[in-house]
Design a protein that fits this description.
The protein has 299 residues and is of the alpha/beta class. Helix content is 40%, strand content 20%. Residues 111-132 are annotated as: Disordered.
Length: 299
Amino acid sequence: MNIFITGASGWIGSAVTDELLANGYAVTGLARSDKSAAALEAKGVDVHRGSLDDPASLAAAAKAADAVIHLAFIHDFDNFAASGRAEHDAVKAMLDALEGSGKTFMLASGTTGASRTAPGAATEDDPSPFHGRDSVRGGAENLALSYAEKDVRPVALRFPIVHGRVGDPGFVAYLAQVAKERGVSGYIGDGSQVWAAVDRADAALGVRLALEKAPAGFRAHIVAEQGTPTREIAEALGQRLGLPVESVSPEDAEAHFGWMARMFGAGTPASSDITRRTLGWTPTGPTLLDDIAAGAYDL
């Protein structure tokens, strides 16, 4: 079975690629650069050269594969609306290529985007509020799930903070960099907001199990830690980096944290009870605080 993966050389995608290869799948990976292509080829991955800005090429690769796992996204926070439109166009092109085939299309989404229908942690039953090309991330999750009516097996992969011991380029690394530059590890307000999280290897396992077991239209919450208070994250970074820990007022958060302020101050609790039962997924990796303490985010 050949799986076409966008983002195959990225933070999550490289782990998913390794998980699939280790379990007998063939993988074709999207590569925009020579460096990414070389890294994939070294693993035994077939390379499809292209980018998210070329929907026709993505459609061809999707049609040739047995299933698609779409993990790439253009993370241009200076022009996030354009990134969302590009995401919509890329996803629609691949879905149109799969229409009527019964094939699987899985796409990365986020637990932060779920519309909670009850207080507390977001669950798999909570829908995304984003619809249409001009909405957040191009409304791609709802677009994909709508193709269940067009003989496609769509699955949304909702990721929280994905952490790991080596090479994490994401949100926690950004917080560590801000702490180093500011000389203080900060949290917003009282720091009671919580971040859901998952170890990268556990995330990759969850994706494979979703590929094998998730029903059409399923929203998989690839969540191991339902919520770690942001104050505890700041304290762990401060202790590891040898920096003081201080509260940052909500009014000063954007000046202190930049684009991260809104996300860090919002809180993103998420449950994965339904996903664990449906997929038989049991995450066993280290926690976010374990990774921070182990030096994963040292600068």
